């Protein structure tokens, strides 16, 4: 599939079936994360795979946006490993984690797996519940799984600004 088609077809899935994801597909998702570009190629991404029912309940304590997904990736970055811009000290960690998350979402789409980028979560609570070290910063939750029958994109999915509205 051409990239532009893949990008257009991907949507935020909010109704997951309980079907598990094959290990080989999980490996492809993780490979997409591994090869994602990061600032200075520091590769500060740190990813937690969450599949255990007890841990999925912890995700539910942090966000109402798991939507019943059987598999969640918590995309984090190591603030000690992320690149810092010399001019103002800006930390690339959140941007790097966002790029990694996007790579995973697009690979998931290509594999027929649905995803939903979740930033609506309590990172402090996630850090506490999952006992993350102080230097590991949660950036996004990524529920993944196969679409439940009858699911589809939200009505606003295709609402896009014309290019002239975002060009400076």
User: What structural class is derived from the secondary structure elements?
Assistant: alpha+beta
Which percent band covers the strand fraction?
A: 15-25%
Mean pLDDT metric: 97
Contiguous low-pLDDT stretches (5 residues minimum) are: none
Shape: globular
Total of DSSP H or I helical runs spanning 4+ residues = 6
Q: How do the helices and strands follow one another from N- to C-terminus?
A: HHEHEHEHEH
What is the gyration radius calculated from CA atoms?
A: 16 Å
Helix content: 25-40%
Q: What is the terminal separation in angstroms?
A: 31 Å
Question: How many E-type strands?
Answer: 4
How does this structure look, described?
The chain contains six helices and four strands. The protein has 168 residues and is an alpha+beta fold. The model has no long low-confidence stretch (mean pLDDT 97).
């Amino acid at each position: 599939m051409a990239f532009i088609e893949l990008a257009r077809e991907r949507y935020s899935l909010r109704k997951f079936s309980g079907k598990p994801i094959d290990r080989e597909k999980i490996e492809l998702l993780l490979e997409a994360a591994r090869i994602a570009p990061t600032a200075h190629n520091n590769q500060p991404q740190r990813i937690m795979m969450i599949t255990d029912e007890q841990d999925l309940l912890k995700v539910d304590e942090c966000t109402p946006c798991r939507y019943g997904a059987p598999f969640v990736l918590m995309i984090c970055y190591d603030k000690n490993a992320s690149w810092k811009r010399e001019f103002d000290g800006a930390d690339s960690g959140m941007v790097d984690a966002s790029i990694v998350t996007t790579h995973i979402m697009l690979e998931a789409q290509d594999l027929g797996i649905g995803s939903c980028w979740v930033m609506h979560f309590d990172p402090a609570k996630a850090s506490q519940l999952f006992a993350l070290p102080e230097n590991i910063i949660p950036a996004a939750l990524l529920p993944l799984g196969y679409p439940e029958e009858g699911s589809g994109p939200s009505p606003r999915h295709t609402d896009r600004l014309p290019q002239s509205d975002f060009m400076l």
